[in-house]
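sry for the spam today, last one i promise. struct tokens for design, 590 residues
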């Protein structure tokens, strides 16, 4: 029941993990570590103060070790983030400088730590490299832990929560998120964080609803408040009125029922009523997500974002390490295809190793294939690992951020060199694999007819295609209203590329987020896309929608679609014609 007369508040944030949950708020605040007192330490007590600091660090290290050890198998891959935090504990800048400050300034450990952390953070935050800027958050997480141990502040141990609650936090660190037990925690909301944050990645792996980036949700929710999270729509409702509660309860049960029904049929082929078979594939970031693609009935992996194995570390993974990971994924999926996208770093996914590049405009910088063509040793290592792993199943290779024709030629040359190298080494490999490119830059759209001659398939990366053609940063909330997959400009580009692919006899796929939304499917089907790839959880809904459509009707429908002048008009036309079968009704936020 809602509280007697509390004001209902509705907030919009980043829907980081889909689903709806309703429950009581459990605040994970930072009380006890925000206000730090400063006091002078007598000369003869300085060693004791240093010992006290060292003990707090040791306690932090022991706790982290325990968390890493207890990390469930499914989240093993994320444990590397915690290993990074362990390294920070030994860091000279943090550990050594705090001890020095205690000695030199004869002040208490809390004050010294706070001062040192503030200095390190301002250094990181002023760096132009976005990866290093983000590391300021890691410093925060780790120094908070040490501080809690110093002041003896009661730390909310997420792993110990024994009620069914919704966590409300300023920012949940990856360590904290990985402690979440699905049977206890229904979902979580945070002030900080975005869809691509580590926290968001873990929420999706846990399959619990999460809304992040709400700015000040911790200031608006009290412990025990009733709250609703709609992780699909990115909505949080605090103290819902009876009417709202009923609406979301209905939506939740419709969602659950619907999910159960579509999952039952998700292993059936995505075949339209008139017999067209669409391939529905999954996008993965981490090797273990391949299992989800399987269980949600995916026909293969349409996008394996390999860069996640390169982030959060200071060295590059070697050929053997990469080979092992790729082989695991390929073996899980075989005989279904696995599309391995080569390293697409920089832009919003900067490498620790690239801090030497000063890029004022990273989205327009040395990203994706541009980086690989410059760092050919790193690129060749990855290509060799892919060619070797390709022996174990059905592998395709895909190159990101292709902007010019020369880039394709150069890339293929390096692929040949990688194969020659393996040949010389006498290592078993498979060179007979399909080669494709992502179409995600407008120049590639317009050059598609010439580029088609060089490759076996195109995969349209709508996330970047929208970013680069509408001139909007995909992560900037100020221009988010322009991020419209249904904008006629985007639809025209997709249609052009699809028509060219058909004309040249190559396959045409879509692996941007757009492919995972049922409402877009009649258009993608009508345009003639051969294969869609999406977040694994979206596969059952998309397959189910495809099974209720008629491809010939969808093709005819395109005549009306391409007369529309705005994204809103396209949406309205879709709703009027296909509203009865679209599952988006479930996510209706009105
Ligand atoms: C895209 O740009 O649409 C895409 C699939 O790649 P990413 O989101 O990884 O940039
Ligand atoms: Mg992209």
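last one done:
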């Amino acid at each position: 029941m809602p509280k007697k007369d509390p004001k209902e508040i509705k907030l919009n944030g980043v829907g980081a993990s889909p689903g709806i949950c309703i429950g009581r708020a459990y605040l994970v605040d930072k009380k006890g570590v925000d206000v730090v007192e400063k006091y002078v330490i007598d000369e003869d007590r300085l060693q004791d103060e240093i010992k006290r600091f060292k003990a707090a660090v040791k306690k932090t290290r022991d706790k982290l070790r325990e968390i890493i050890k207890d990390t469930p198998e499914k989240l093993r891959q994320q444990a590397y983030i915690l290993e990074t935090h362990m390294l920070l504990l030994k860091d000279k800048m943090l550990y050594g400088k705090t001890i020095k400050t205690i000695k030199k300034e004869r002040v208490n450990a809390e004050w010294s730590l706070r001062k040192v952390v503030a200095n390190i953070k301002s250094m990181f935050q002023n760096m132009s490299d976005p990866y290093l800027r983000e590391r300021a958050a890691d410093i925060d997480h780790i120094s908070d832990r040490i501080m809690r141990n110093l002041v003896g502040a009661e730390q909310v141990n997420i792993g110990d929560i024994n009620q069914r609650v919704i966590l409300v936090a300023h920012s949940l660190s990856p360590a904290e998120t990985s402690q979440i037990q699905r049977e206890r925690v229904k979902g979580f909301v945070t002030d900080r964080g975005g869809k691509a944050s580590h926290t968001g990645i873990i929420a999706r792996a846990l399959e619990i609803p999460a809304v992040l980036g709400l700015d000040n949700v911790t200031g608006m929710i009290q412990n025990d408040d009733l709250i609703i999270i709609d992780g699909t729509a990115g909505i949080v409702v605090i103290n819902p009125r009876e009417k709202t509660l009923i609406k979301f309860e209905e939506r939740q049960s419709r969602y659950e029922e619907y999910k159960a029904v579509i999952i039952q049929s998700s292993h059936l082929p995505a075949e339209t009523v008139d017999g067209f078979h669409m391939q529905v594939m999954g996008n993965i970031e981490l090797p273990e997500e391949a299992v989800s693609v399987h269980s949600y009935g995916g026909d293969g992996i349409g996008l394996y974002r390999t860069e996640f194995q390169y982030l959060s570390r200071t060295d590059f993974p070697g050929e053997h390490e990469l080979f092992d990971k790729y082989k695991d994924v390929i073996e899980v999926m075989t005989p279904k295809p696995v599309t391995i996208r080569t390293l697409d770093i920089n832009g919003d996914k900067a490498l620790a190793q690239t801090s030497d590049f000063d890029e004022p405009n990273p989205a327009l910088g040395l990203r994706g294939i541009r980086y690989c063509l410059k760092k050919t040793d790193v690129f060749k290592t990855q290509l060799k690992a892919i060619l070797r792993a390709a022996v174990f199943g059905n592998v395709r290779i895909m190159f990101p951020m292709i902007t010019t024709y020369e880039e394709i030629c150069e890339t293929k040359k390096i692929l040949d060199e990688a194969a020659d190298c393996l040949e010389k080494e006498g290592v078993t490999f498979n060179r007979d694999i399909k080669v494709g490119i992502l179409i995600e830059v407008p120049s590639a759209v317009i050059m598609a007819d010439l580029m088609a001659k060089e490759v076996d398939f195109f995969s349209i990366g709508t996330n970047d295609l929208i970013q680069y053609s509408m001139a909007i940063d995909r992560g900037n909330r100020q221009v988010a209203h322009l991020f419209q997959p249904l904008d006629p400009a985007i639809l025209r580009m997709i249609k052009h590329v699809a028509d060219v692919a058909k004309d040249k006899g190559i396959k045409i796929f879509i692996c941007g987020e757009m492919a995972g939304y049922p409402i877009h499917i009649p258009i993608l089907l009508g345009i003639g896309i051969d294969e869609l790839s999406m977040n694994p959880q979206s596969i059952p809904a998309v397959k189910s929608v495809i099974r209720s459509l008629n491809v010939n009707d969808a093709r005819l429908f395109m005549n009306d679609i391409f007369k529309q002048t705005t994204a809103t008009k396209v949406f309205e036309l879709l709703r009027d014609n296909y509203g009865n079968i679209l599952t988006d009704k479930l996510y209706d936020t009105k």
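Residues 303, 305, 344, 440, 461-464, 511-512 surround phosphoenolpyruvate (ligand 1) (CB under 6 Å). ok im logging off now
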